[in-house]
Amino acid sequence: MTSPLRRDARRNIERVVEAATEAFREHGLEVPLEHIAQRAGVSPGTVYNRFGGRDALIDAVMPALIEARVREAIDRALAEPDPWDGFAVYVTMLCELQATDLAAGDALGRRYPSAERLTEICNAQIGDAQTILDRAHQAGALRADFTTEDMPYLFWSSAAVARATADTAPDAWRRALALTLDGLRASAAHPLPAPPMTHDEMLAAMTALGERRQGRS
Question: Would you say which domain of life the source belongs to (predicted)?
Fold first, then answer.
């Protein structure tokens, strides 16, 4: 028979995960762990003892959500007969996810290396994104010099607009993204003043964003 202590410990873990899921979605992945503990009705020490820190808690909450939503965007994009429409659908769905779920926005635009499962999922989707870009390139619809390493620019800028306008003009990010997408059409292409980031540079930049959050623990 399971002891009362073990049942209590398991219930505390469930409470922390539930509280973290809600808090991350409302405030992003930077929300203080103390806030999560208070919301779960446990001590901060319980959070640290059960999860060891923020990234482990992120890894307990985010992978299933991100994997399902990113997979949906990829499948919708590849199902589009027009490669440009597929590219636009993919980008728009992920930007919409960012605008409506702050935790997803952080997960898509940053890297948390100690959240190993989430990092694995986010890195794996880069190959699918490349397939979407390749289709649009081969159709002559997407400017030829746009790479997967340029994708974070779209997510960073869209996330910044969504956060800045959330209370005043919650759909403003859609206009900003539409302007950006028009600039990515091959027909509108002009030479760019700098080369794209390398794959390693892109991951380093995303990791740095994850490490700069206030109250990192």
Answer: Bacteria
